[in-house]
Amino acid sequence: MNAENFTNEEYWEEIKRKIQREANVSDITYHLWFENLEFRELSGNTVYIVSEKEDERALGYLNKKFKDYFETVIGEELNQIISVKFILNSNTPHTYEPEETKIDNDTLNPDYTFESFVVGKNNMMAHQVSVAVAEDPGKTWNPLYIYGGPGLGKTHLMQSIGHFILKKDPTKKVIYVTSEQFTNDVIESLRSGNTADSMSKLRDKYRTVDVLMIDDIQFIIGKEATQEEFFHTFNALHDAGKQIILSSDKNFKEFKTLDERYISRFAWGMPVDITPPDYETRSAILKNNADKYKIKIKISEEIIDYIASNIKSNIRELEGALNKIIGFSKLYNNMEPDLEFAKEALKDYIYPSDSNKITFDRIVDVVCQECGASKDAIMSNKRNADIVYPRHIIMFLAYDMLGITYQQIANNLHRSDHTTVISGCKKISEEINSNKSGKNTKEKVESIKKILSGN
Ligand code: ADP
Ligand code: MG
Fold first, then answer.
1. What is the pTM of this model?
2. Which of 187, 225, 310, 374 has the largest count of CB atoms under 10 Å?
3. What are the backbone angles phi and psi of residue 223, rounded to the nearest 5°?
């Protein structure tokens, strides 16, 4: 059997049906996920399969759930070991790395390049420094440390550097891993008894590279063994003049438990931050994304403005909102969305402005909902831990977000004594800083705040 046969529609369908049986999935799933998949080509050992869905998330899902089945079934047909790459219709296979490069590059997202990165005030410095590092890895700033809140483009920027370096010199060994992958590799090596063999496997992977990128380094901090291995990897690479790129949710100086030896090493390089984008940058990113779809669906300025004015703190959500509108419009035969349509599509993302106003009652509602407590219990004198905790969060948020006095908060909660409010606020703010109880109070409070402010 050769690859030509796959372009025959009937034959291709037969193959997909076989995969459906192998994967044991229903006809509904078949229609949703397999029907729109086209065979594009076999290049080297890679089979490119096009998804008509034009949605990154579809690719993620296909990769996660079905890649193995496709590889097995198609591989059997072709009598060779193949790997499958799902791509979007808008990508041609040739925008991917050529086969012969010996780079473990599966993990770089092909869309995360400098070309598609919109530069605004919020990321200008980070961008500039990243380009400099990409032009001259291991020389200028080592390590490069990119930090900032979620969804602001750290991963995108860091991977852009990887793409740039590989494009210029495909023989360079570039590795991108999440902290989780790095941790898993260390654990794996420990589990296999830390034998010379398992250690050398780990070292081969991480210490022989030209560029090592570790994303979201905050998750390594505090994990003793992983942190230690990272430290030695860092030193080995740095001594050899290899580039290290790290990202994190905050500046390393803010990690209270981080050892001085890390801090001093991180400080050798360049910490750069990315802050939330301003309105212009938000619209520019949206326009860029909307352009990808413009042949089929036109997104008006008005809609871009609506999204950019309402979603402010996270680019991932900004893109999510646009995708939601596009997805909605596809359901209606690519109908051109107007503002009303967009508002309807985004009703879970953006709340109408009056219900968006933060009041004491809304704080109580949202906290109850998020913590699974009842409003009556909150207002009562009950002192069980599962009521006291959300009650304290309410006190903290009311003080923080409404700017009212402790006494007013006490009154709202039907209490006479404002000192309980003071101690409640204090407890939460200590929890935010220490997470001693392991309840992830900081994350919880942040996510409630997000809901309250409507993004
Ligand atoms: P982080 O790693 O900081 O959480 P990501 O890099 O994953 O954020 O970015 C989230 C999404 O926003 C990605 O789809 C990314 O392509 C997009 N994005 C972020 N910043 C920009 C930018 N400046 N220009 C274009 N797209 C961006
Ligand atoms: Mg990221």
1. 0.60
2. 310
3. -90, 100
